[in-house]
Specification:
Layout lengths: L2 H15 L2 H21 L5 H25 L2 H15 L8 H15 L7 H12 L5 H15 L1
Helix pairs in contact: 1-2, 2-3, 2-4, 3-4, 5-6, 5-7, 6-7
Length: 150
């Protein structure tokens, strides 16, 4: 079963269970998926779905921060429920050790030796980690690795 099929099945289950927050989150995700497919003029595979999903999760996290700053705890709670509903579809996150090992591999593969090679390393590593690690963490680890070996 593809990720899109699983999302559709879960949407049906949310409708039957009358779970409004999950249903709302899945509907927004489906809309974003449809928009991306129209934009690319092609059916999305699981990797494409994960990219859209990661983008939606990032938006939810930013909204939660903004609502919290504004003191709107009702909206914070709603966004957190939707965030939980979306995070179910993300692949298992890698541990820090696994990310570090992959950073070491990619630095060796690309022959990176200084901060000038940062872009080369990041462009090589991020497709491998799509949805499995936070980009900020990866960026920080690559900086440490390149800064330490320069």
């Amino acid at each position: 079963m593809t990720l899109k099929e699983r999302i559709m099945e879960d949407m049906k289950q949310a409708m039957k269970a009358k779970d409004k927050s999950t249903l709302e989150a899945i509907r927004m995700l489906r809309s974003a998926l449809r928009n991306r497919e129209i934009e690319k003029q092609a059916e999305l595979d699981d990797d494409g779905v994960i990219q859209v999903l990661a983008n939606q999760i990032k938006k939810r996290k930013e909204s939660i921060e903004q609502f919290r700053d504004a003191g709107r705890m009702d909206l914070v709670e709603r966004e957190e429920k939707q965030l939980q509903a979306l995070e179910i579809y993300m692949p298992q996150k890698l541990s820090l050790e696994e990310i570090k090992r992959l950073v070491d591999e990619v630095v060796a593969e690309t022959g990176a030796s200084s901060m000038r090679d940062m872009g080369k390393v990041m462009s090589a590593i991020m497709p491998r980690l799509q949805g499995k690690a936070d980009g900020k963490e990866v960026n920080q680890m690559v900086r440490e690795k390149l800064g330490g070996s320069a």
